[in-house]
Specification:
This protein is an alpha/beta fold and 310 residues long. The chain has helices spanning 11-28, 92-111, 113-117, 144-155, 178-188, 208-213, 231-239, 261-264, 280-295, and strands at 3-8, 32-35, 45-48, 65-68, 86-87, 136-140, 159-164, 173-177, 191-194, 218-222, 243-248, 268-270. Oxalic acid (OXD) binds at residues 70-72, 89, 278.
Length: 310
């Protein structure tokens, strides 16, 4: 049987994905046509991105699953017309990208690199950075990305604490959960990394009260989602130097408008949602593997829970 895969993730992305999907389908021994337009009742699987114009899933009566090219699914998970199973993206290249982004910015803070990059002639200020084992890193979110970053930072010698919804026990990582656990983590963290999904429970998680719990002079790296942090509370905390610096990759509204205070704040680095991108060659294999699993009667990998929203 020939499957019909509707690529509903935008025309530009389609050009990137056409060849990798075709190779992955051949490798998996699946016969399928990948189209950007089809009669909804003929579609077996939908490949999706939040930028898609497809918002009403009701007519896709035969569709067995919707496969997101994005890890974050906050813009689709609450769609009431989506009754099909939804899988989010977990992909080795995406994970590697996030490891590199987080490690790079942690090391920048850890080594105090900015002071040397911006030093003026004669600024001979020799501040010895601590070694990694003297530095406390806190990671909010211990999922596919948070845990991968935690493990890499551990390998570099950092002390790593993490926070998740469910209680966890992980080798060498001090694990916390719940409100008290979050407070404990924040109070001892020098560099905080936020890798949580945006859900009703995580929205504005880092509000004024919680930012004030951070160790004074802490640094913040947010490649998770903009809505995890109360923007004004962060600016206030930076102004008071409760937080020494923030590196922000994600924002409530993207692209971040040129007049947003984050662009202009001397202690904020803005990166334009580039922490980790889904790359077609590896993501196509992930998508096809999931289709093959469903066709073989196996459970979808990385299925999103409608209860938790991630
Ligand atoms: P996962 O679903 O694998 O992990 C999410 C983690 O967050 C889990 O550890 C989960 O806890 C924890 N969590 C969720 N809700 C809560 C809560 N209410 N309280 C405490 N912990 C909570 O996601 P990924 O690691 O794959 O991705 C994380 C996020 O990173 C994405 O949702 C997306 O927003 C962002 N992202 C950003 C990119 C960028 O380029 N900037 C690229 C890709 C992703 P538990 O383990 O108990 O379930
Ligand atoms: C994602 C992202 O969720 O790029 O995949 O932010």
């Amino acid at each position: 049987m020939t499957l019909t895969l509707l690529f509903a993730a935008g025309a530009d992305a389609y050009e990137d994905y056409r060849a990798p999907l075709s190779s992955a389908l051949t490798e998996a021994g699946l016969t399928a046509t990948v189209v950007t337009d089809a009669a909804p009742q003929d579609v077996d699987y939908i490949i999706y991105a939040p930028s898609s114009s497809l918002q009403d899933f009701t007519p896709f009566t035969r569709c067995k699953a919707v496969l997101s090219l994005w890890a974050g699914v906050e813009r689709i998970v609450g769609n009431a017309t989506l009754t099909q199973p939804l899988a989010r993206m977990v992909d080795p290249s995406l994970t590697q990208g996030m490891i590199e982004y987080v490690t790079g910015h942690v090391l920048r803070y850890h080594l105090g690199m900015d002071a040397h990059i911006t030093a003026r002639p004669g600024d001979w200020v020799a501040v010895e950075p601590p070694l990694a084992h003297e530095r406390q890193i806190g990671i909010l979110g211990l999922g596919a990305l948070g845990l991968a970053c935690a493990r890499t930072l551990l390998q570099l010698g950092f002390q790593v604490q993490g926070w998740s919804r469910a209680a966890k026990s992980l080798p060498d990582i001090t694990c916390h959960h719940g409100d008290e656990g979050l407070k404990t983590l924040l109070q001892s963290t020098e560099i905080l990394v936020t890798l949580l999904p945006h859900t009703p429970q995580t929205e504005n998680l880092l509000n004024a009260r919680r930012l004030a719990q951070l160790r004074p002079g802490a640094r913040l790296i947010n490649p998770g989602r903009g809505a995890l942090i109360d923007d004004q509370a962060l600016i206030d905390a930076l102004d008071r130097e409760q937080i020494a610096h923030a590196t922000l990759d994600v924002f409530r509204h993207e692209p971040l408008s040129a007049d947003h205070p984050f662009w202009h704040h001397p202690r904020v680095t803005v990166t334009p949602h580039i922490a980790a991108t889904t790359r077609a060659p590896s993501a196509a294999r992930v998508i096809v593997e999931n289709i093959a699993r469903m066709e073989a009667g196996l459970a979808l990998k990385h299925q999103v829970s409608r209860d938790t929203g991630y």
